[in-house]
């Protein structure tokens, strides 16, 4: 015969209760936790599977009993009972720098708070690898999915939607197809950088960008730069935009390439911060001084930006905010709530020592 939760509603029969027995620790079972906490087994189950709907006073009692008894629930049984894997999948283009680290940690905090597990993968900026990760996550039964950017085939979105799981695109403020997005306006951010350089007198501007194909963030940033130049009756000259893989060494090589142009650019906009670090390091090897000989800008305001010499002019992007809001959006959908339509997050142009007016002829 089943027992009813103190709040009324959920019932568990003996078979379901026994399936939740501890698998580690001192052998404590779900019934042991319930007796120690003075609640029903259903309340313990609800704390494990849907902690957000349990009253705080009951939740505190159950958590104290779990700690006292060293109880470890059986994960497979929990998933079967709740019909959820309690896993959130997140795929980032890279995990090799701190660019996505703040967002990952903020997302992790939201996932932990909800009692879920975060599963993370890296696509290494490869479309095929991201598709493979998405397929594996869907096959594993993740309850929700966070992706970066919106540039992927419609068949990928159809596969996600067939699973009827919530998902959110990040680092972009809008995407074709009306997909939910949490991010900032990449085009506007790059436009602000270019406008700053134009305002202090630069006219010959070069761009170091990541590959534009299948990367809507990089493409939007270049579009923003081109729009700012067009506002002043200018355009990017042939050879003044270089696409390359992301990385500091790649930034050095690209900077050396643009500095060989005639006439030489007086400013270089880097679409990723490691490019800018590489440009500054390579300028010294070339006998150039930043910003007297050439101004250099970055993008994202990573931790090194304010410590490198000269300190880097860059765009501060809301990386932590992206991760936190993505998590809150996904859990709102999972809990059956009507989530607010995400609005574009803000960015800030941070002017430091790496930009100055061009040297007079």
- In total, how many beta strands? 13
Order of helices and strands: EEHHHHHEHEHEHEEHEHEHEHEEHE
In the CATH hierarchy, what is the class of the largest domain? Alpha Beta
Q: Which percent range describes the beta-strand content?
A: 5-15%
End-to-end gap: 91 Å
Shape: elongated
CATH topology of the largest domain: Rossmann fold
Query: How many structural domains in the coordinates?
Result: 3
So, CATH architecture of the largest domain?
A: 3-Layer(aba) Sandwich
Helix and strand content put the structural class at: alpha/beta
Mean pLDDT: 88
Relevant CATH superfamily of the largest domain: Response regulator
Sheet of most strands: 5 strands, parallel
Regions with pLDDT < 50 over 5+ consecutive residues? 1-25
Work out the helicity level: 40-55%
Q: Give the strand order of the largest sheet, numbering strands 1, 2, ... along the chain.
A: 4-3-5-6-7
Radius of gyration, in Å, reads: 26 Å
**Helical element count?**
13
Primary descriptors:
4-stranded parallel β-sheet, 361 residues, 3 domains, Rossmann fold, disordered N terminus, 5-stranded parallel β-sheet, alpha/beta, 434 Repressor (Amino-terminal Domain), 42% helix
Structure characterization notes:
- The chain is an alpha/beta fold and 361 residues long.
- The chain has 3 domains: 3-81, lambda repressor-like DNA-binding domains (434 Repressor (Amino-terminal Domain), Orthogonal Bundle); 85-184 and 319-346, Response regulator (Rossmann fold, 3-Layer(aba) Sandwich), CATH 3.40.50.2300; 186-317, Rossmann fold, CATH 3.40.50.
- Helices cover 42% and strands 13% of the residues.
- The chain has a 5-stranded parallel beta sheet with strand order 4-3-5-6-7, sandwiched between helices. Strands 9-8-10-11 form a 4-stranded parallel beta sheet, sandwiched between helices. A two-stranded antiparallel ribbon has the order 1-2.
- Helix 12 (273-285) links the parallel strand 10 and strand 11 (295-297).
- It is elongated.
């Amino acid at each position: 015969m089943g027992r009813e939760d103190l709040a009324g509603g959920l019932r568990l029969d003996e078979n379901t209760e026994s399936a939740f027995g501890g698998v580690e620790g001192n052998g404590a079972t779900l019934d042991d936790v319930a007796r120690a906490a003075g609640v029903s087994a259903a309340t313990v189950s609800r704390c494990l599977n849907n902690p957000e709907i349990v009253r705080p006073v009951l939740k505190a009692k159950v958590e104290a009993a779990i700690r006292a008894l060293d109880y470890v629930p059986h994960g497979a049984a929990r998933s079967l009972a709740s019909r959820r894997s309690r896993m959130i999948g997140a795929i980032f283009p890279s995990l090799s720098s701190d660019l996505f680290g703040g967002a990952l940690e903020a997302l992790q905090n939201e996932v932990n708070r909800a009692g879920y597990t975060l599963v993370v993968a890296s696509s290494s900026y490869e479309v095929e690898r991201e598709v493979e990760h998405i397929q594996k996550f869907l096959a594993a039964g993740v309850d929700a999915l966070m992706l970066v950017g919106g540039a992927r085939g419609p068949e990928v979105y159809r596969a996600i939607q067939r699973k009827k799981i919530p998902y959110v695109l990040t680092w972009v403020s809008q995407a074709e197809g009306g997909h939910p997005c949490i991010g900032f306006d990449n085009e506007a951010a790059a436009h602000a950088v270019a406008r700053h350089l134009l305002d202090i007198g630069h006219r010959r501007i070069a761009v170091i960008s990541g590959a534009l194909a299948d990367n809507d963030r990089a493409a939007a940033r270049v579009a923003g730069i081109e729009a700012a130049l067009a506002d002043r009756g200018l355009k990017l000259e042939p050879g003044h935009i270089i696409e390359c893989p992301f990385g500091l060494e790649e930034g050095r090589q690209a900077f050396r390439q643009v500095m060989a142009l005639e006439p030489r650019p007086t400013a270089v906009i880097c679409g990723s911060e490691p490019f800018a670090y590489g440009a500054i390091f390579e300028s010294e090897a070339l006998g150039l001084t930043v910003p007297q000989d050439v101004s250099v800008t970055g993008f994202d305001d990573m931790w090194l930006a304010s410590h490198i010499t000269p300190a880097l002019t860059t765009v501060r992007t809301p990386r932590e905010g992206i991760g936190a809001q993505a998590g809150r959006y996904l859990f709102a959908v999972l809990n059956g709530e009507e989530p607010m339509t995400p609005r574009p997050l803000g960015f800030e142009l941070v002017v430091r020592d790496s930009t100055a007016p061009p040297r007079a002829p």
